[in-house]
């Protein structure tokens, strides 16, 4: 198997500050309460992805999916463990991340293209395709702060998908945007998958994950509790969500 991505015991902790103001800090100190806690967002996550795998990261809210995606993309370093990626990683992990509000759509294509690893010649060669897919029309030469959230999203997605990454990361991007664009994105991702590229995605839409991914990695409190076929992972998510809703309805927090 040619590996596209190796996660080797990846761990990440965050510091949770309970008090932000001096007054709060004083009150907590007097009550002998802790001012901060360490919180484990990812705990020894390991997985190997072969070239061509399409993998969903699943889990209920706060289980660590976005944190893991950020670590894979390199925007966040792990505290412990290693991430090895073969080739170019790109994707959309935070809506609009990498788009500069004061620059025009055109300027952003070049800036964001460069951030995602394309040189000027490559961006020029793909420019028309990027703009056509994004369908932002006359707004191309307007600063992107004037864009609607849908237009912003379309441009960001279009640039990312045209960088032709070896490993494509997608976090919840299909939740925004109009239905037509969503269809276009799904078609593009299906093509991407068929071309043998590797994909890792996070989405709350279970049927979308079933359609686009063949494997699911299920995280619970930052640990892998299932890594295997997507249907089992998706069923697990549906069950966990039900349990969580029932617990909330019963006045417990799960
Ligand atoms: N920068 C940060 N500082 C402190 N805590 C953080 C930070 N980023 C994430 N966390 C915490 O880490 C945990 C995992 O967050 P993460 O966003 O990875 O979860 P998720 O599974 O993507 O959740 P969701 O489905 O709600 O998007 C959460 O409890 C979150 O509050």
Percentage of residues in helical conformation: 25-40%
Q: Beta-strand level of the residues, as a percent range?
A: 25-35%
Proper CATH architecture of the domain at 1-30 and 37-77 and 197-254: 3-Layer(aba) Sandwich
Heterogens = adenosine-5'-triphosphate
Arithmetic mean pLDDT? 89
Describe it:
- This protein is 40% helix and 27% strand.
- It has 254 residues and is of the alpha/beta class.
- It has a domain at 1-30 and 37-77 and 197-254: P-loop containing nucleotide triphosphate hydrolases (Rossmann fold, 3-Layer(aba) Sandwich).
- The strands form two sheets. It has a six-stranded mixed beta sheet with strand order 5-6-7-3-8-9, with helices on both faces. Strands 2-1-4 form a three-stranded antiparallel beta sheet, with helices on one face.
- Bound molecules: adenosine-5'-triphosphate.
- Adenosine-5'-triphosphate is lined by residues 14, 41, 59, 61-67.
- Adenosine-5'-triphosphate binds at residues 14, 41, 59, 61-67.
- Keywords: ATP-binding, Nucleotide-binding, Transport.
